[in-house]
């Protein structure tokens, strides 16, 4: 857990888990970009869209990707 200059706890640092501070993996879930900490158990799903998708039933489709979201989305959609 990290702290800001005035001792405030940093709740969310993009790309890093708010819980354990490890770098997060980028995942596509429901076709939307998310971050996920694979070090936490259960894996912690974060990112803007997780506010929505965390409340949906697990779709069974989740893809870890690196690099560009759009390129990864195209691969996911086209099945390449
Ligand atoms: Zn974590």
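^ Assign residues to that structure.
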């Amino acid at each position: 857990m990290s702290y800001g200059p005035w001792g405030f706890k940093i709740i969310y640092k993009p790309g890093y888990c708010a819980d354990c501070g490890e770098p997060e993996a980028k995942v596509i879930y429901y076709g939307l970009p998310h971050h996920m900490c694979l070090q936490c158990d259960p894996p912690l799903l974060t990112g803007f869209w997780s506010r929505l998708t965390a409340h949906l039933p697990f779709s069974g489709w989740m893809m870890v990707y690196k690099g560009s979201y759009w390129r990864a989305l195209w691969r996911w959609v086209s099945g390449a």
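Residues 32 and 49 are 7 Å apart (CA to CA).
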